[in-house]
Design goal:
The structure holds 2 protein chains of 2 kinds. Chain A is α/β, with parallel strands linked by helices. Chain A contains 7 helices and 7 strands. In chain A, strands 1, 2, 3, 4, 5, 6 and 7 form a 7-stranded mixed sheet that branches. Chain A starts with 10 loop residues before the first strand and ends in a 13-residue tail after the last strand. The N terminus and C terminus of chain A are likely disordered. By secondary structure, chain B is mostly helical. Chain B folds into 2 domains: 121 residues, putative rabgap domain of human tbc1 domain family member 14 like domains (Helicase, Ruva Protein, domain 3), CATH 1.10.8; 138 residues, Ypt/Rab-GAP domain of gyp1p, domain 3 (Cyclin A, domain 1). Chain B has 21 helices and no strands. The chains are: A alpha/beta, B mainly alpha. Chains A and B meet through strand 2 of A and helix 8, helix 16 and helix 19 of B. Chain B: It holds the Pfam family RabGAP-TBC.
């Protein structure tokens, strides 16, 4: 378990990992947060949670990441975690075409349950298995462009692009937040607070200690 | 000549020494090899689970003690098995006490069958549908379920030799597929594989299947897993009430930190802790669950709070969530956990009242 000094950050972003069962969500998370890959990993039952802090523009940005079970019926439990999330990694397995075909349904799930301004990144995982590839990069890229998603291909097994994927989405969220005029930002915050009950994007004010809250 | 002799002698001696050291080294090497072989053997615990050396896991003396203890209990258990009716009725107190101490491993399968009474269901269904009913179930397909079952096979007890190399994966797959055909409405739900695999450790395939059916239908587990997770949602409601009643201080601390029961409840309740604890503890919990019912999960849940409340009270949100989600990383003595769990007094009247409350709320929401 990582024992973080919890106050040691400037921004806190909540991210969710979603996608079909077995596409590698949990291993992407453990690769990013602990630099671990587990060949003997268990199926995720419900939700799991991990954090990692990175630097952007000299600021410490902390990601609170929720990893979710992939089976469809689990959305009854996991969709509660979309609320208040500012980013989502929508993951498919490049060797399993059905996991790509299901992306539309996952996007609908996000539209129904997440905040409208959530940043979504499409992630094609398992590129180490190139000989088994069934989703061409170009097909996925086109899908991401059509739906205005960020796009990257990764391998949690050999680490390719994992760090980059998380950094890119966190950067994007950070930039988006900087761009927003104050009142709009407030509005967003408010909507998050009222819908999720807890504050997720937190910018620290000098001298005002902020109580950290999780959310669901 | 006389001169040479002394020379020769030391030579011989040297040679002898050489031979000796040679032999000693060989012996040492042999010992080393034996030591290594032993270490290799000890890569697995007594149940066949791979020990993680990085985490400093090794066979413990308490494990050997447990084996000793079980051998000593064997006679009592044999007698009890042979007179099951008597112990299940007139001497149920003795039975309960002995199950709480842990069913000896060599009796586990037999005892699980007797406690769950799955033979009755098996025989009834065979009579009704034919002796090859189980095989007939396997001829049908539930395609939607199959895809997810296949993906879970090597992710269920992945550290166990059987599931690592895959010899048991086929049997596990068949049980789950048969279930998803037997009850198409509930079908397969992630989490079930842990329960089925647990049964397969101790039971023949078809017996494991019928015991699984009994768990789903008579122990109400199918309502844990069916669409919308009705029993699980109810359990979360009951757990919140119980938690508040039994330890308000820790409960409020969880609330203050926004650590909700659904964040860890799925890992705890959806597999009767089979996805949570180390295997010896999982077995002990499962023994008692089979005999005393699904409410036992609340005893275990509160035992966790009781054992770790001091640490928990010092933790903030992130640390606390990870702590309760990964409670298996804490050193837990199985006897201590079980004796704590069984000593907690929970009024089943309360649980029933909270269940009613929950359903009333659900209905009110529906009406709105």
């Amino acid at each position: 378990m990582t024992v973080d000094l919890q106050d040691d950050y400037d921004y806190l972003f909540k991210i969710v990992l979603i996608g079909d069962s077995g596409v590698g969500k949990s291993n992407l998370l453990s690769r990013f947060c602990r630099n671990e890959f587990n060949l003997e990993s268990k199926s995720t039952i419900g939700v799991e949670f991990a954090t990692k802090a990175i630097q952007i523009d000299g600021k410490t940005v902390k990601a609170q990441i929720w990893d979710t079970a992939g089976q469809e019926r689990y959305r009854a439990i996991t969709s509660a975690y979309y609320r208040g999330a500012v980013g989502a990694l929508l993951i498919y397995d490049i060797t399993k075409h059905p996991s790509f075909e299901n992306l539309e349904r996952w996007l609908q799930e996000l539209r129904d349950n997440a905040d409208s301004n959530i940043v979504i990144m499409l992630v094609g995982n398992k590129i180490d298995l190139r000989h088994l590839r069934s989703v061409p990069t170009e097909q996925a890229r086109k899908f991401s462009e059509d739906h205005k998603l960020l796009f990257i291909e990764t391998s949690a097994l050999d680490s390719t692009n994992v760090e980059l994927a998380f950094q890119t989405i966190l950067n994007d969220i950070y930039k988006l937040m900087m761009k927003k005029p104050d009142d709009e930002e407030k509005q967003i915050k408010q909507s998050i607070q009222t819908s999720g009950g807890t504050q997720v994007v937190i910018q620290k004010e000098p001298d005002t200690p902020i109580k950290k809250k999780g959310c669901c | 000549m006389t001169d040479e002799k002394p020379k020769e002698k030391p030579k011989e001696k040297i040679n002898e020494n050489l031979i000796e050291t040679d032999e000693k080294e060989k012996e040492k090497e042999k010992e080393n090899q034996e030591e290594k072989d032993k270490e290799k053997l000890f890569d697995y615990d007594r149940y066949g689970f791979l020990l993680d050396k990085k985490l400093g896991q090794k066979r413990t003396t308490s494990e050997l003690k447990n084996v000793q203890r079980e051998v000593e209990r064997g006679t009592k258990w044999r007698e009890m098995m042979d007179q099951w009716e008597k112990y299940a009725t007139k001497k149920s107190g003795v039975l309960k006490r002995r199950i709480r101490k842990g069913i000896p491993d060599s009796f586990r399968g037999e005892a699980w069958m007797k406690i769950s009474q799955s033979e009755i269901l098996r025989d009834r269904m065979r009579k009704k549908e034919g002796a090859d009913f189980y095989l007939k179930l396997l001829e049908e397909e539930n395609e939607e379920a199959n895809a997810i079952i296949e993906r879970d096979l090597n992710r269920t007890f992945p550290k166990h030799e059987n599931y690592r190399v895959g010899s048991e994966q086929k049997r596990l797959s068949r049980i789950l597929r048969a279930w998803s055909v037997y009850n198409k409405t509930v079908g397969y739900c992630q989490g079930m594989a842990f329960v089925a695999a647990l049964l397969l450790f101790y039971l023949e395939e078809e017996d494991a299947f019928w015991t699984f059916v009994v768990l789903m239908e008579q122990y109400h587990m199918s309502r844990l897993y069916s669409i919308g997770f009705p029993l699980f949602q109810q359990q979360l409601y009951q757990w919140d009430k119980l938690f508040e009643k039994l330890d308000k201080k820790v409960f409020l601390h969880f609330q203050e930190q926004s650590v909700m029961s659904q964040m860890y409840g799925s890992r705890w309740f959806l597999t009767i802790f089979a996805n949570t604890f180390s295997f010896p503890i999982v077995l002990r919990i499962f023994d008692i669950f089979l005999h005393e019912g699904i409410e036992f999960v609340f005893h275990v849940a509160f035992a966790i709070i009781k054992l770790f409340r001091k640490q928990m009270l010092e933790m903030q949100f992130e640390q606390l969530v990870q702590f309760v989600q990964n409670i298996n990383l804490q050193p837990i003595d199985e006897d201590e956990l079980i004796s704590t769990a069984t000593s907690i007094s929970i009024k089943y009247k309360d649980l029933a009242r909270w269940a009613d409350e929950y359903h009333l709320q659900q209905e009110e929401q529906k009406e709105k």
